[in-house]
Amino acid sequence: MEVSLDLLLGAIVAGILLGGFYAAVSVGISISFGMLDIVNIAHPAFIILGAYAAYIVNSSFGLDPILTAILMLPVFYLLGAGVYQVYYAVFERRGDEALRGLAFFFGLLFIIEVSLVLVFGVDYRFVEAPYIGPTLRYGAVDLPLRMLVPFAVSMVLVILLQLFLSRTFTGRAIMAVSQDRLALQLMSANPAKIKRVAFGISIATASLAGAFLIIIQPVEPSVGRDYIGRVFAITVLGGLGSFPGMVTAAILLGIVESITATFYGPSWSPAVAFGVLLLTLAFRPSGIMGR
Amino acid sequence: MRAPTFWLVASLVGAAFFGLSLLVPNQYYFQAGYVVLQYIVLATAWNILGGYTGYVNFGVAAFFALGAYSSVALYKLAPLPIPVLVLIGGAVSGVVGLGMGYLTLRLRGAFFSIATLAMAVVMQTLITNWDYVGGSRGAYILRPAQVPILGNYIVYLFLVMLILSVIAIGVARSIERSRLGFGFASIRDDEQAAEAAGVPTLRLKLVATTLSGALMGMAGAPLPYYVTYLDPSSGFSLSYAVNSIAMPLIGGMTNWIGPLVGALFLGTIQQLATVTISSALNLLIVGLLLVGFVVVAPNGIVGLVERLIAAARNRR
Amino acid sequence: MAALLEVTDLGKHFGGFTALEAINFSVAAGERVGLIGPNGSGKSTLVNCLCGTLRNESGSVRFDGRAVDGLAAHQRTRLGMARSFQLPKPFASMTLADNIRIPLLYTVNARHGRHLSPAELDERCAELLQLVGLAGKARQRPRELTQVEMRKLELARAMAAEPKLLIADEAMAGLSHSEIDDILALLSTLNERGITVILIEHIMRAVMSFSERLVVLVAGRKIADGLPQEVTRNPEVVKAYIGE
Predict the structure, then answer these.
(1) Any idea where the domains of chain C sit in the sequence?
(2) Rounded to whole angstroms, how far apart are CA atoms B89 and B103?
(3) Chain B interface disruption, residue of C76, C78, C79, C89, most B CBs within 10 A
(4) What is the end-to-end Cα distance of chain A in Å, rounded?
(5) Looking at the partner chain, which of B179, B186, B254 has a beta carbon nearest the beta carbon of C91?
(6) Which superfamily does C3-89+163-242 belong to?
(7) Which residue of B2, B53, B179, B255 is the best one to mutate when testing the C interface, meaning the one whose CB has the most C CBs within 10 A?
(8) Which domain holds residue B210?
(9) For chain B (length 316 residues), average pLDDT per consecutive 10?
């Protein structure tokens, strides 16, 4: 009995760390889908792009992957702003985002993934950093640094974004656009411009999430697909657009997945997120924190 | 064209097409033709939900693979003729489509799309962990080399898929002209207004998901006999989803001709291209065409042709 | 006269926000009732609860002698409760005739014992478009219409369901003086044919000339219900409107 209690405790701690990483993966979708109502199913593909950016710089210059990701933030921001510009001009302005907008992002997901396959092949790639090997041990609990570092940076990222949204003018305008477009126009701000900034930020977070991903596990182009269900499950479960809800949901999912992997085997863990998503959609579409 | 006439013409075109293809000595053409026909069924099925009611299904691979895997499961149990497998595969995927729709269709459209994507992964995980159908190692199917009358087994499978595509197109076309088709279109245009006009939107959407799912399952049922070896990652390949969405979008979504044109166009260039270029590049082309068409020609090839005809008329 | 519509203690909340509280009123068959109130007073929420687009948490709605609580919007339409939308919601991909065809197919043909043949359907579409003055545009699409024509299409579509009660939700917002008169004349014609009308409106001139009775909502509560002249002299109503 003692052994399995230890196992359970270990699984829960591992799950919390995993959940922190999931929060970084989902924060972008929380902005684009939760606040802007843009169903960017290509988000995980941008995360993989971030992972490969970290891999290229790390393998050729030996630069730390997280530092690389921070340096790459402006590039990803511009990429996101550019994608939104196209999305706005072609779909949103025409009121055509529901069907063709979705297909657009689906195509984008596919183009990014296949391009990466063409350039890098399907081999797993990984990065090197001093914190990837060592593990802190407290009794039965393992705290691998390669999980702990992404967890910590991810929490800092979410807190900074929350402060940005609640304390700055642009941040408040983004929150306003998620509530009410008219109110925003009365503030004499241009919704499309605000949304472009917000979408840019959402894609910028993919740079960091990608770096975390390749620190935690080796990456190949199709890995992103495993995250589609996870990010949407977390965003919906957390109650669209709420960061505290999102972090709670991410950690919850991390724990459930980790326990499932420990007791039933890792081949079941992809189904956990999707199962959670389907159950949430069916029974509690407003999320765990929703009224 | 009245419905019975349409069925007659469609069957004749199908029969003529089949007769012509029998003159082709090379088995490769039947193999390639099977894939194109399979895409005609998938694209038409996707369009019944996506094009007519406006709900985007990303889980095509799941419905398709469920049909394929019900054949694998039955193969292990007792060998049955392909047409029976097609019916069973259709029933299984149809029921899953109904359940899926029931869980999510009361919500906004985007949730349905995300949920279908999610379902594909759940199904793949279930199949990967189900040893009876081979689990992650996959399953082998031994098929007879010959069948009576037709001879080659591939020719037989080709014929089955040809009949299925005639049925799929016929179903799509008869929906379009019916009360059901008007109801679907009203849902696509404005769901709230449709309800106010007396359209039972939830029930109609469930009809669409069930029908669309069933046709996809039917298209998948003969797959194990075609490939003779099936594993989860090939059965659930994302390329089924991307093709089934790209074909109607590229062809045009408002009527049955669009998916047919899209499937013939994309399916054929892919079959030609696999000989000369890698399959990854092949899929990249599909992705680029998909994005290109939604951005530049939102009504697809059919829309472009209609515009050209209208322009030509105006000039006169 | 027996009430066609009877609303008892109807309440609706959105989270912690009370949108409607204990609303009681009834509408007699053949009556013309105006429903007014400042922005955000709950008029649209009430319409949505009556029509089944939203579910009320408390109270009940009786229509034509039966409780309709729990019935979906399309079922209420089939019972004879039709509405037009505040922002016109045409079926954009269809011709005007087909816009009308939808309710004909799904209400008239869904009721027991009646079935319109294709020829009768075409005829009815033409009649209804004629009624609202859009006869020449049967083959056009909604995007080619002007604002006032769009409202007329909206009313024609509601009429196609052969309703007993028509709920016109701000059918005149944004229209010119003469266009408003057009719509008012149309509504009066419908009422003379025996259709009960609830008019939700901001334009007081229109409400006053059309309504036999006024119901006033303020902040989710009914504050007045009676003859138009009396209601407009009611101090609470005056305060609510001038305070706006």
Answers:
(1) 3-89+163-242
(2) 21
(3) C89
(4) 39
(5) B186
(6) P-loop containing nucleotide triphosphate hydrolases (3.40.50.300)
(7) B179
(8) 3-237
(9) 74 77 75 92 95 91 94 88 93 93 80 84 87 86 79 87 93 92 93 93 95 96 92 87 92 92 90 76 87 88 89 80
